[in-house]
Amino acid sequence: MEALYFNVSDGYLEGIVRGYKSAILNTTHYLNLTQCETLDDLKLQLSATDYGNFLANEPSPIAASTIHEKATQKLVDEFKYVRNNAMAPLSQFLDYLTYAYMIDNVILLITGTLHERDTNELLERCHPLGVFDTMPALCVATNVTELYETVMVETPLAPYFQKISVNDIDELNIEIIRNTLYKAYLEDFYDYCKRIGGVTGELMSEILEFEADRRTINITINSFDTELSRDDRAKLFPNLGKLYPEGHMKLARADCLDHVKAVVEVWVEYRPFFDTTLNSFGGAATSEAKTLDDRFFEYEVHLNKLTFQQQFHYAIFYAFLKLKEQEIRNILWIAEYFPNKFGIIFFTGLLIYIIMSNIYSQLPKYVTNSSEAKKERQPPVSETTKKFVPDFVTGTLEETVKDSAKVYASKLKDKVLLLDNPLKTSNEKKKRKHSKKKVRSMSAKEKRETKIYEIPNECHRYELFIPLNELWLQYIDELYGTSSPAVFAQKLLKADFHGAILTGNSVNSCILITQISNPILIIPVSRSRCASYIGVTGINIHETENVFKLITKDNVLKVIPKGHSVFTFLLRDHMFTLYGDQFRFRSAARAAKKFKNKPTIDL
């Protein structure tokens, strides 16, 4: 009977979503995408999938951000089609899915208002799924108080704002407000799914409990070494999940990552997250170690895939949305892999500099006396070689020269001779003169096969890159010069960061460390989405559009993303802040780009 009544109102939409899910990219598609050499090739491969000609109107050369924007818009169109044809209670369930994006958008508007940004401009940066009908009314607000009152009346998030007063809204508490809203949202959504009951309540309870536990773990780790007290930390934990309530009480008292690991390992489902012997969820071997954030994503995908093994429930609508978002992230990661020509030239020059620096560091220092310096620079020669060369030359010249020893001493000894190939015939010379050798550049596939961008594992040694860091310190000091902080801020946007020492304070949150003139004051970063990069420090050896690649003191290569990052450092008693989301450009693009001097926000 349940199946019969379900199909009457929701069976058609369930079939639509299952059809959407069957079009999700599989292993073969990803293999074809990774074999692409340019973004245009990637565009062509995507056109052969369910994405179709969604990039047909985009001119070449196409950017990775454009691919991400168009893929997201396609997902939004599919979701809106399902929502417009849904009836209660499915329509209310789908509305709950958009509340998470609404929270991010409202927080974005509040942060922009605190920084006196134009709210109409911020609307363009909001996620499409989090846009509601009364959202333009928020643009009328000119300060935080008016915006708060508008949110309380005009938005579906009003019940979640009841525990937040307008006096609590400031730049320091913005992340606490975000987590408070998410806590209220998860608890409300969890209760709604329980009221629906059946298979929907069973599957959604497991998914939302994991989401709550993930946020609890992240809040705990990210609150280390901050002013957030243990009681305030506990108030941010959602009142649901496998960790609730016993795990919450223990995590509220945790003060290091080892304590968190000891608490979480009690639950079998979460034990692999902190097991360093496993490279992925389930223990499958991979080419590189997984971060805590990666393992969270893998387990989330695993739970979402299980929902499609049962029928007549609403959980597949939630699972499809999350799986499609993960697919878009995968496409964006592949698109960002393609480097520009400037990166090839600079990275090759960087490797040459490092190699030559280490060679020169092993050579003896020059002495002041020229004759001694000449002997000092000469490579060591064995006694056998010293005796063989004169004897061989004089023995060869005895047949044609009377005084061969004198000829050797006057014309050959201590002289440098250029040994060339025997003369070719005139015809061969003409062929070589008129032949024009075509210069062919390496394809992207050849570059991947030859691993031109990869530093060999034996060269993953921190001490090899210390000269590069010292050179960068001199460079940034000369760049600052006698200019004012405002002028230097513009120079910093176009500066080269190869050789800088970067520290990951938390995943997707980094700190730039320099050592010029004055000691550096490290400023903690309040916002993050995962904590697997906490304390990661190393020399930046490669910068791409979206990541920094670091060599740590443990001789390990780490990749730190720029997205959702805030880079803050103190230089000559002046504080400088770089917002990672607006800093996602390649070095060559940054050097030629004109940045506008206007207020910004942490995105």
UniProtKB/TrEMBL annotation:
Keywords: Hydrogen ion transport, Ion transport, Transport. Residues 429-440 have a biased composition (Basic residues). Pfam families: RNase_P-MRP_p29, vATP-synt_AC39. Gene3D superfamilies: ATP synthase (C/AC39) subunit, domain 3, Ribonuclease P/MRP, subunit p29, V-type ATP synthase subunit C domain. It comes from the Eukaryota. Residues 426-445 are annotated as: Disordered. PANTHER family: VACUOLAR ATP SYNTHASE SUBUNIT AC39 (PTHR11028). Belongs to the V-ATPase V0D/AC39 subunit family. This is 15979_t:CDS:1. It comes from Gigaspora margarita.
